[in-house]
Amino acid sequence: MLKGGRKAVFQPYLLIVQFTDQGYIINLRRHGESSLILTVLTKSHGKVTGYAKNALTRKNLGIYQLGNLIEISAYARVDDNMLSLKTELVSPAAVNFLSDNAKLQALSSLCALSNTCMPELQDLERFYYYVDSFFNLIDKDNWLVHYSFFEFYLLEYLGISLDLSECSATGTTENLAYVSPKTGKAVCAEAGEPYKDRLFKYPRYILECHYHPGPEELADLLSMTEFFLYKNFFAAHGLKFPESRANLAEIIRCNRTKF
Question: Residue 47 pairs with which residues in a beta bridge?
């Protein structure tokens, strides 16, 4: 307090947070008449959410689509609540999904899962490789396999790693055939045979990086990842499971032979 009852006023030095990165748009929320709250899954900074001013102009509409690869420049004063983003389109990847309902649901599912599960501004490290592979290989016949790799390693990223190294009942590392939904551990064929209708198939194609599994293997893997994502993350945190992921599961169940 100064003489005469006057208060000292300090003007703190305002630092600027600034970085550039590339990533895929995973969420869009309108803000006001022409701006967006934009969420991008980036290579080096993980999930980045920020304010994109005047994004919804006629000129920019093609940029702001789920799945598009963009470059962002992010900046904010330290006392701001949110980053501001300047963007530039790198690749209009969204167009690769529009003509196929299954691909569109897979895109929506990946975006919804990433937006809900990923923490803000944390390096995704090698997990980003599986995101990038899905987008880059969406035109391949086995595109859904690359999506399944994303979900399997999402479990690992979230700390829901499955113990697939040995049979939980016998300790053997041979002839592993199932995964227990109760424990998340591997079960060998002999021990699992009496309970096989209640177990998931062992995800051999994932562990061996084999990109052309049979349709039953693929469908079972996605049933398993859905189960553990719901049980160990969404239900555990009181979150609603994404409708787009449920829609994708229904498409797969109805078209198993197609994939």
Answer: 41, 120
Cα distances from 102 to residues 24, 109, 246, 256, in angstroms, run: 19, 10, 12, 12
pTM: 0.89
> What CATH number belongs to 1-94?
2.40.50.140
Task: Give the residue extent of every domain in the chain.
Answer: 1-94, 127-164+203-258
The DSSP bridge partners found for residue 35 are 31
* pLDDT at position 152: 97
Spell 204-214 as b/e; 16+ CB within 10 A means b: ebbeeeeeebe
The owner of tokens 């086995």 is 142
- Cα torsion for 165, 166, 169, 174, to the nearest 10°? 140
- Dihedral, 117, 120, 123, 125 alpha carbons, nearest 10: 10
3-state secondary structure of 36: strand
Q: What is the DSSP letter of 140?
A: S
Residue 148 pLDDT more than 60? yes
Task: Work out the end-to-end distance of the chain between its first and last CA atoms, rounded to an integer number of angstroms.
Answer: 74
pLDDT > 50? residue 22: yes
For the segment 100-123, the average pLDDT, to the nearest whole number, is 96
Mind listing the pLDDT tens digit for each residue in 25-59?
999 999 988 899 999 999 999 999 999 998 988 88
* Coil/strand/helix, residue 4: helix
**Three-class secondary structure assignment of 228-253:** HHHHHHHCCCCCCCCHHHHHHHHHHH
